């Protein structure tokens, strides 16, 4: 008996890398602070570009930014900025590079003040992913009241390249919201995976 074809959100159908990302990562709740910060930084680099552009460069990005370790990135100086601007494997935007360094410092300032990044991220939803019921791609908004609220909070803490549209794309990616549309095989899979991991007591995917 032939296997049932996989149905996906339409944005993921045009490239094998997007399909893999959609089927394995997008919308799965992320609980670990560093991983949440890394994805937010990558979403910032995506501004004005396609997510596929970032996916194709994700490994070079991780190498260039020392595994997106905030403690390391926060110590980057002008020599590192120059080095990164010469790196053809990443997006060579001075504004985005400098914002990432500043965002690492803001992340550490939050931690020093006793504000753990994962708790900051998940508190607005009570620690649970929002299970949206979008019927089609056109129903998915670019921003929401919650993404505006989180964006404002991040900016107050010194973050840059965290506008509400960037923040909402990040919320979708790290599973704060489940925006797989009706008919997508991953919509229910992500929801069930969340429930199973909660039962098992795991803190991160």
Outline the structure in words.
- With 205 residues, the protein is mostly helical.
- It has one domain (10-200): Endonuclease III, domain 1 (Orthogonal Bundle), CATH 1.10.340.
- Helices cover 54% and strands 2% of the residues.
- The chain is built from eleven helices and two strands; from the N terminus they run ααααααααβααβα.
- The protein has helices at residues 16-24, 33-46, 51-55, 58-64, 70-73, 78-85, 94-112, 117-122, 145-156, 164-173, 185-200, and strands spanning 130-131, 177-178.
- The protein has a two-stranded parallel sheet.
- The protein is globular and about 50 Å long.
- Mean pLDDT is 92; it is low at 195-205.
Taken as a percent bin, the fraction of beta residues is under 5%
Total number of distinct structural domains: 1
Compute the gyration radius: what is it? 17 Å
Across the major sheet, the strand order is 1-2
**How many alpha or pi helices?**
11
Please give the alpha-carbon distance between the first and last residues.
32 Å
Poorly predicted sequence stretches spanning 5 or more consecutive residues: 195-205
Residue-averaged pLDDT: 92
Short description:
The protein has helices at 16-24, 33-46, 51-55, 58-64, 70-73, 78-85, 94-112, 117-122, 145-156, 164-173, 185-200, and strands at 130-131, 177-178. With 205 residues, the chain is mainly alpha-helical.
Essential attributes:
single chain; 205 residues; mainly alpha; Endonuclease III, domain 1; two-stranded parallel sheet; 11 helices; 2 strands; 2% strand
List the helices and strands and how they pair.
Elements: H1 16-24, H2 33-46, H3 51-55, H4 58-64, H5 70-73, H6 78-85, H7 94-112, H8 117-122, E1 130-131, H9 145-156, H10 164-173, E2 177-178, H11 185-200
Parallel strand pairs: 1-2
Helix pairs in contact: 2-7, 2-10, 9-10
